[in-house]
């Protein structure tokens, strides 16, 4: 009941925000928060719930971004038509990458995903068909509504809000299904989970594929809003890192963790960028580094875990009364 | 024949932790597996459940060769286990831990939850259902291991030192629980250092020493077997102890 109340409050604030704070800067900021929240929530499925910390998620983001822009640049279609293609591409890639790498534990998985993403960035940078270092552009002037090319950030804001809601709904449904339980169990002890019949490899792979699909949608939306994609904005490692940090800061493995993280970090970055101009980029790295250290040191569960109701402490206190 | 291992060998490098071990398990058995520390009991166990891939040998379940099956496939066939060092899902409640087992036979959450509640009731942990599993001590964790395994509705349950770290009273309760599990038709393999547990539960006993089976038979037969006493105490002590009640030598009566 309380949850429902909170949910309505959050939804109301989200719907009212761009109308109340209606300057172009504020609306754009809101849209960006939602966009990153979508990407971070998608990452959360595999990085948070399954505990497989992918640092190469930008590769799926890139699938969506390039598919959306490619659909216009190559076929003259609305970038919208690229979305299904981007999803298919991301899911297939996730399967190919996931089968060998999801067996790797901890840091090795993270490093493998970085390697895949960086390799992909290099390949794309050297592929003329994909615009090489220049990238691909979307329609400069919208031909019709389906091009989803707007000057104002307001339409993007509401589009992103809907997609975020769908992403969170899918995550919620997954977390409360057998798959979500299995993922949490695998995260704690893969060995025990398997002994109880949880097909660990398959479950992690499904989570990876689902996460990749949603990340690809985020990438497509990003490219549509900015009207172009290049290797840096579509496949740069910094995007992977941002997504990861947002989820971790807000609370990895918690439904609303990534949204909270995005709502804190995106404004921080945008504001510091507008104050410091180009020099802000360097600062961003420093801030992210500091956040990683702080999360690792003090609150591995993220901010939201501070508010999460814990299970009642047990009565059983152990073998203290041994003979 | 429910479960059969034929010539299982498990080598870590050149060291054979289990060397050509065979066993057969009939429906309704309680097989005790004993041996000194490092004898290879857990390793043998892990080969049966698929946690480790045997270097050579076959494992059969209900006549079917399951040597190449994954642990999860074996669980689905009806092979369940507990871990010597409890592998509690610490981020979950006690109930959720058991639900992971229950999900094997019921894919719906509500159904798994109902089943998990029933299992907790059965093992006497209902009171702790909503407690965080992290807050449990050793006895609670050991019992939770059993509860989770039971929730998978196994045909064979392998308990790896499920009573280590329990006090005398808790051991008695655990013995009652194992009896109850056995009565419900589940075949058991128990690895245990506490001889009283083996004596009161096992119908047959198999003794491991340095990876090899050195004796098998009824609990009474093996505990009076000189080779077994020698394995536990060394040859000289075994000679000195000749004529004494071996049970007392092998860990002493439970206090
Ligand atoms: N993964 C491993 N790598 C190398 N050696 C191992 C490994 N696992 C077990 N061993 C060795 O194999 C031998 C048998 O170990 P195992 O755990 O099976 O003994 P155990 O009979 O269960 O002993 P305990 O009563 O102490 O539990 C030991 O010498 C152990 O050190
Ligand atoms: Mg052992």
UniProtKB/TrEMBL annotation, chain A:
One Gene Ontology molecular-function label: branched-chain amino acid transmembrane transporter activity
One of the record's GO cellular component terms: plasma membrane
Protein name, per record: Branched-chain amino acid ABC transporter permease
Organism: Bradyrhizobium neotropicale
Residues in coiled coil: none
Membrane topology: Multi-pass membrane protein
Chief localization: membrane
Lineage: Bacteria, Pseudomonadati, Pseudomonadota, Alphaproteobacteria, Hyphomicrobiales
Keywords assigned by UniProt, alphabetized: Cell membrane, Membrane, Transmembrane, Transmembrane helix
Automatic annotation (TrEMBL), chain B:
GO molecular function: ATP binding; ATP hydrolysis activity; L-isoleucine transmembrane transporter activity; L-phenylalanine transmembrane transporter activity; L-valine transmembrane transporter activity
Record-annotated ABC transporter domain positions: 3-235
Transmembrane regions: none
Pfam families for this protein: ABC_tran, BCA_ABC_TP_C
GO biological process, one term: L-isoleucine import across plasma membrane
Gene3D superfamilies reported in the protein's UniProt record: P-loop containing nucleotide triphosphate hydrolases
One cellular component (GO) term of this entry: plasma membrane
KW Nucleotide-binding (keyword) present: yes
Protein keywords: ATP-binding, Nucleotide-binding, Transport
PANTHER family referenced in this protein's UniProt entry, alphabetically: AMINO ACID ABC TRANSPORTER ATP-BINDING PROTEIN, CONSERVED COMPONENT OF ABC TRANSPORTER FOR NATURAL AMINO ACIDS-RELATED
The protein's role, per its UniProt record: Involved in beta-(1-->2)glucan export. Transmembrane domains (TMD) form a pore in the inner membrane and the ATP-binding domain (NBD) is responsible for energy generation.
Protein name: ABC transporter ATP-binding protein
Species in which this protein is naturally found: Bradyrhizobium neotropicale
Lineage, top ranks: Bacteria, Pseudomonadati, Pseudomonadota, Alphaproteobacteria, Hyphomicrobiales
């Amino acid at each position: 009941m309380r949850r429902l109340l909170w949910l309505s409050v959050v939804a109301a604030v989200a719907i009212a925000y761009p109308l109340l704070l209606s300057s172009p800067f504020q609306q754009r900021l809101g849209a960006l928060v939602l966009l990153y929240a979508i990407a971070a929530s998608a990452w959360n499925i595999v990085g948070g719930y399954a505990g497989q910390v992918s640092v190469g998620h930008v590769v799926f983001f890139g699938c969506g971004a390039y598919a959306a822009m490619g659909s216009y640049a190559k076929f003259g279609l609305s970038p919208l038509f690229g979305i299904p293609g981007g999803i298919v591409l991301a899911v297939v890639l996730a399967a190919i990458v996931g089968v060998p790498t999801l067996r790797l534990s901890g840091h090795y998985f993270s490093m493998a995903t970085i390697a895949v993403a960086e390799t992909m960035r290099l390949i794309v940078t050297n592929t003329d068909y994909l615009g090489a270092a220049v990238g691909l552009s979307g329609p400069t002037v919208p031909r019709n509504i389906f091009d989803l090319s707007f000057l104002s950030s307001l339409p993007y804001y509401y589009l992103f809000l809907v997609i975020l809601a769908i992403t969170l709904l899918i995550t919620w449904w997954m977390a409360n299904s057998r798959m979500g339980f299995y993922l949490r169990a695998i995260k704690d002890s893969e060995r025990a989970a398997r002994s109880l019949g949880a097909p660990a490899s398959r479950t992690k792979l499904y989570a990876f594929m689902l996460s990749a699909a949603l990340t690809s949608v985020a990438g497509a939306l990003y490219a549509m809003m900015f009207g172009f994609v290049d290797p840096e904005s579509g496949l740069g490692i910094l995007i992977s890192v941002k997504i990861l940090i947002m989820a971790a800061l807000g609370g990895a493995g918690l439904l609303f963790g990534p949204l909270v993280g995005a709502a804190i970090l995106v404004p921080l970055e945008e504001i510091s960028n507008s104050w410091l101009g180009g020099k802000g980029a360097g600062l961003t790295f420093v801030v992210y580094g500091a956040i990683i250290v702080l999360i690792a040191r003090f609150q591995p569960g993220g901010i939201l875990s501070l508010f999460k109701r814990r299970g009642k402490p047990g009565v059983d206190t152990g073998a203290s009364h041994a003979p | 024949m429910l479960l059969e291992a034929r010539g299982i060998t498990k080598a870590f490098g050149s060291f054979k932790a289990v060397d050509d071990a065979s066993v057969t398990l009939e429906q309704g058995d309680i097989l005790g597996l004993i041996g000194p520390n490092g004898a290879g009991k857990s390793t043998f166990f892990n080969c049966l459940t698929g946690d480790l891939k045997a270097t050579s040998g076959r494992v059969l379940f209900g006549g079917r060769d399951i040597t190449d099956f994954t642990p999860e496939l074996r669980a689905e066939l009806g092979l369940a286990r507990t871990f010597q060092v409890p592998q509690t899902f610490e981020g979950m409640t006690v109930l959720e831990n058991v639900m992971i087992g229950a999900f094997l036979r019921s894919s719906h959450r509500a159904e798994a939850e109902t089943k998990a509640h029933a299992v907790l009731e059965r093992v006497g942990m209902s009171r702790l259902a909503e407690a965080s599993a992290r807050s449990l001590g050793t006895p609670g964790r050991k019992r939770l291991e059993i509860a989770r395994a039971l929730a998978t509705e196994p045909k064979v349950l392998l308990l790896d030192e499920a009573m280590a770290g329990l006090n005398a009273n808790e051991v008695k309760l655990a013995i009652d629980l194992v009896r109850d599990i056995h009565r419900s038709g589940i075949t058991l393999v128990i690895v245990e250092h506490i001889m009283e547990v083996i004596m009161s539960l096992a119908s047959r006993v198999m003794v491991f020493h340095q990876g090899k089976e050195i004796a098998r038979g009824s609990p009474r037969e093996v505990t009076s077997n000189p080779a077994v006493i020698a394995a536990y105490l060394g040859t000289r002590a075994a000679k000195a102890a000749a004529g004494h009640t071996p049970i007392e030598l092998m860990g002493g009566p439970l206090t």
